[in-house]
């Protein structure tokens, strides 16, 4: 891991820097590159524009590490309203949520109940409910919640991170329950005994895991902006059905090109005011992005 990436990922955990940064106008301007706006209406507006171009979307309200149950209930209620609106406005949109936003750290049973109600509503409105993957200490709990909810609902998917050394074993055990999996490279700061420190090992693991999932019959989503890797997987797993999900504002031209070539593409749209840790993880993925922040500082 580069020093710049490690420093940025460390900064993403600092509430003091978050407070300083979030108040600045230049920061709000810089963050616009990765989100259409803080409000859910901004997300719907963008989703309608993507839909006109044949691209689907996935919504996520930014937030994590909620420590009181009432707040997690409010997050669930927010998504229930969003799912109803997805149906009413007929936008081809899924939702994706972090389990620590739905109270996984407070009480597992209550978190499962919240996810159950969201997965049920997603099914009723013809959408899909995705579970994000957070730091490695949450993986066991996240898998438990996924298994519990998958037992009763089909349209529920889970994110797995290719950089984790444990993921091939998780894939093998999940394949037995007919999973839907979004494969990503992994966005957090992890020790080398837990995650590959070298990008090339993560990239190889990503290829192997994706091919295994496709050949094992899982509904597979390639959550990556790595177009060369997508092309290699597409060639190797010719004839298998998969979707590509990318983040809003990253590789926009490739999103459209893939959709034109017949791949189902969805753009993940984030919204909400709690964007600091999420935004700094985006900077860490490509430390050159820090220049956008600097440019905005001097843009007046
Ligand atoms: P890689 O880093 O190799 O980038 C490939 C190319 O994409 C780069 O060369 C560059 O051109 C471009 N690119 C990538 N990131 C960029 C950025 N920030 N700014 C500008 N250009 C960029 N992680 C996680 O741990 N848990 C999760 O639940 C999710 N969920 C998730 C959903 C979806 C739909 C996506 C696309 C990603 C995630 N991630 C995630 C993030 C993921 O783990 C990873 O950090 C990023 O996708 C960056 O890695 P790439 O796969 O894009 O490859």
Question: Summarize this, please?
Answer:
The chain is of the alpha/beta class. It is built from 13 helices and 8 strands.
Explain what you see.
The chain is an alpha/beta fold. Helix content is 49%, strand content 15%. The protein contains 13 helices and eight strands. The chain has an eight-stranded parallel beta barrel with strand order 1-2-3-4-5-6-7-8, surrounded by six helices. β5, α9 and β6 form a beta-alpha-beta unit. α3 (25-31) packs across α13, α5 packs parallel to α6 and α9 (199-215) packs parallel to α10. The longest helix is centred in the N-terminal third of the chain and has 20 residues, at 69-88. The radius of gyration is 18 Å and the shape is globular. Bound molecules: dihydroflavine-adenine dinucleotide.
């Amino acid at each position: 891991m580069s020093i710049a990436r490690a420093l940025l990922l460390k900064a993403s955990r600092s509430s003091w820097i978050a407070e300083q940064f979030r108040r600045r106008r230049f920061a709000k301007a810089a963050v616009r590159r990765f989100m259409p706006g803080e409000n859910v209406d901004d997300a719907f507006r963008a989703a309608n524009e993507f839909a006109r171009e044949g691209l689907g979307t996935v919504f996520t309200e930014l937030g994590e590490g909620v420590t009181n149950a009432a707040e997690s209930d409010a997050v669930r209620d927010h998504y229930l309203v969003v799912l109803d609106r997805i149906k009413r406005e007929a936008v081809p949109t899924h939702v994706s949520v972090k389990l620590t936003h739905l109270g996984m750290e407070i009480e597992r049973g209550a978190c499962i109940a919240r996810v159950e109600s969201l997965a049920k509503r997603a099914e009723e409105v013809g959408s899909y409910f995705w579970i994000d993957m957070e730091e490695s200490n949450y993986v066991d709990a996240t898998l438990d919640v996924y298994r519990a909810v998958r037992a009763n609902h089909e349209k529920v998917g889970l994110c797995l991170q290719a950089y984790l050394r444990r993921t091939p074993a998780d894939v093998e055990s999940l394949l037995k329950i007919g999973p839907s999996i979004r494969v990503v490279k992994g966005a957090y700061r992890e020790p080398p005994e837990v995650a590959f420190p070298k990008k090339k090992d993560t990239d190889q693991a990503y290829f192997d895991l994706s091919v295994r999932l496709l050949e094992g019959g899982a509904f597979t989503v390639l959550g990556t902006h790595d177009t060369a890797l997508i092309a290699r997987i597409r060639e190797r797993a010719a004839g298998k059905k998969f979707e590509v999900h990318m983040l809003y504002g990253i590789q926009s031209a490739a999103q459209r090109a893939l959709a034109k070539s017949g791949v189902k593409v969805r753009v993940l749209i984030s919204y909400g005011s709690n964007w600091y840790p999420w935004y700094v993880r985006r900077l860490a993925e490509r430390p050159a992005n820090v220049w956008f922040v600097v440019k905005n500082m001097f843009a007046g």
